[in-house]
Structure formats: structure tokens, C-alpha cells
Design goal:
Four Helix Bundle (Hemerythrin (Met), subunit A), disordered N terminus
Length: 292
């Protein structure tokens, strides 16, 4: 099932009929920039094109305020604006006749009904532009994010909502960054990258947790030494938390840090939830001690 989300992740640039692996995940050629667009833009682009191909004598140039896009001038402007917005450079260069016609029509009053000659010029200009547009469009790809077990909207825009209330804002900045990156990697189905970010974020929270509890005689700030030190501490954390942290270290962190583990999209969601649970417990424990 496809989750529309009112967004499309897209890549613009000439990539040919067989996109390269880098292009297939939204890396724009030369810039490395991923775009996020409302699918309304794509729908209106197509409807504007179809509207102008059907132009008839008597159609008004402009409508009342708030409805400008639904008439001739609004559709021509929107079509040309979106050619630029979508970075369709060849189509932009080929659209000179549409631009010239727009300049001519803009000299007329808004309540002018286009003549048969003007309607013919408009249809002809758009029909001649369409093959170029379609040829260039075939070299661009767009991807729609699909459903996951985890809420895709939260993965992309509200990873804090995956944690217990009030937890995410108390995390170290690097942990917040990595968890947000993990969410995006899960949404875009880069599971091993998601695991890396998830485990790095969890280790950052563990350091924060450890340093909040242990003020003197700290162990080396590595996952194993910190957990072992906590297990011997007078301020010993709950046993289930220590067990979870050591399990994550042995079963996931170490194999992922070295070139041993690869994850599928189901496995990394299990890991993400496991790390979220451990982080929630660490922050809950700090809060119970008045250290959060």
C-alpha cells in the first residue's frame, strides 16, 4: 500500500531511462539535494497543461480574486512557473512561444474572452511544447514513501513523537540529530544506515546518562565500559535497563560498528523500537532521581 503523505520525494536532472543508484534515492545531480513536494503541484501541472490544450474562444483571461489560477492567464503562468520550479531546463528553453503569447495576453483586460485566433495560438504553442516536456520528464524520477510498521509521518517530520512524552527534547543534540536521521533512513528504506544512526544516538544518550550518574572515577566513555561501571555503581540503574543496554551492545552495536551486519527494513524497525525503549528508561530513571 502506498502512503501519499501529501509529499513526493523527487529527483530532477537528466538521469536517463535507467536511474543510477544515487539518483534513485533523490540525490540531485551535482548538488546532492533532495526535494520534497506536495503532489498537488504535480496534479495542477498536468491539469494546467490539459486545460491549455483545450483552449476555446470565449474563455476569460482572468477571474475574480482568489480564483485567478482557474482561468487562462493563471494556467499559463502556473505552467511556466512549474517548468522552472521542477527544473525542466530544456522545456523552459523551448517554451518561448508560450511566453510570448502570455506577454501579448497580459496586455488585454482581465474580462477579455480570447478570440478563436488567440485560442488557436495557445493550443498550438502548448501542443508544440508538449513533446519536449514529455521527453524531458522521462529522464526524471519521483518516489512516493510507502507504509512502514512505524508511522511514516513521524519518521519524516516528528521523530520525537515516537518517544515517551517529554523525552526527546531532553536528549543531547547529537542524539536528536541521529534519531531524526534514523527516522528518514527508515522511511526511505536505507535500513543499515538507519541502524548506524540509531545506535550512535543511543550511545550518545548512554554517555549523557552515565555522566549524569557517575561524577567521579568514570570509566572510558565507551558502551561496554560504561555499562559495566554502572552495574558496579552505588547508583545502580534498574536491572532491566542494564540488561537491555548490554543486549543492544552485544547483539547490534558491535556487529554494526564493524563490517559484519546488514539489516532489512523489518529488522531495523525492531532495533529502533528497542533503542527507543532503552532511551525512555534512561530518561525516566534520571527524572526519578531529579537529574533529568
Amino acid at each position: 500500500m502506498v502512503t501519499v503523505l501529501k509529499t513526493v520525494v523527487s529527483i530532477f536532472g537528466t538521469v536517463g531511462s535507467n536511474p543510477t543508484p544515487s539518483a534513485s534515492w533523490g540525490v540531485r545531480a551535482g548538488r546532492g539535494a533532495m526535494q520534497r513536494r506536495s503532489i498537488d503541484d504535480y496534479i495542477f501541472f498536468g491539469t494546467a497543461l490539459r486545460y491549455l490544450q483545450d483552449a476555446k474562444a470565449g474563455w476569460k483571461l482572468a477571474g475574480p480574486p482568489g480564483q485567478e489560477d482557474y482561468f487562462v492567464l493563471g494556467n499559463v503562468r502556473k505552467l511556466l512557473d512549474q517548468v522552472e520550479e521542477f527544473e525542466l531546463h530544456v522545456t523552459s528553453r523551448a517554451s518561448w512561444s508560450v511566453r510570448q503569447l502570455l506577454a501579448d495576453l497580459e496586455k488585454l483586460p482581465g474580462d477579455h474572452g480570447i478570440t478563436e485566433d488567440e485560442a488557436h495560438r495557445l493550443r498550438d504553442a502548448v501542443e508544440r511544447l508538449r513533446p519536449t516536456l514529455m521527453a524531458e520528464a522521462r529522464g526524471n524520477v519521483a518516489f512516493i514513501v510507502t507504509d512502514k510498521r512505524m508511522d511514516v509521518r513521524k519518521l519524516l517530520d516528528d521523530v520525537a513523537g515516537l518517544f515517551a512524552p517529554g523525552v526527546f527534547s531532553k536528549l543531547p543534540e547529537i542524539a536528536m540529530h541521529d534519531f531524526a536521521e534514523c527516522g528518514k533512513c527508515v522511511a526511505f528504506e536505507r535500513p543499515t544506515a538507519a541502524a548506524f544512526h540509531c545506535l550512535r544516538a543511543t550511545e550518545a544518550v548512554l554517555r549523557h546518562y552515565y555522566c549524569s550518574l557517575v561524577r567521579r572515577g568514570r570509566a572510558q566513555l565507551l558502551w561496554g565500559p560504561m555499562v559495566n561501571s554502572l552495574a558496579r555503581s552505588r547508583k545502580k540503574p534498574p536491572a532491566v535497563l542494564l540488561s537491555n543496554l548490554d543486549n543492544i551492545r552485544q547483539s547490534f552495536r558491535n556487529p554494526t560498528a564493524h563490517p559484519e551486519a546488514r539489516y532489512d527494513i523489518s529488522e531495523v524497525q525492531d532495533l529502533f523500537n528497542l533503542c527507543i525503549e532503552a532511551v525512555n528508561r534512561m530518561l525516566r530513571d534520571l527524572d526519578s532521581r531529579g537529574l533529568a
